[in-house]
Description:
3-stranded antiparallel beta sheet; mainly alpha
Amino acid sequence: xxxxxxxxxxxxxxxxxxxxxxxxxxxxxxxxxxxxxxxxxxxxxxxxxxxxxxxxxxxxxxxxxxxxxxxxxxxxxxxxxxxxxxxxxxxxxxxxxxxxxxxxxxxxxxxxxxxxxxxxxxxxxxxxx
Length: 129
């Protein structure tokens, strides 16, 4: 896929990929059953076809049904979803997104997490030179 917009995921597509990654593989009915507030069956089928066209899913035939599975590890889909969140809620600012993430009502970051974040930042700085 050469068009980068084709790699952008809608909310429903992200939900479907999450179900597929959680189950390993699934039919359209299994995907629908695993979704919060699921759309109709034909809508799920349409989204599965779109995800396959975008390169996120593949399928195998099991009698009359298609069984869908991830065509790649979940990281590319997660990165696409995260990019959308950063653009939509933080104006594209990674710093604002990270600040919001670190201020969530959860436990403060551990020393190990802080060291990992510092290493990522340093790597980004080096790659930017």
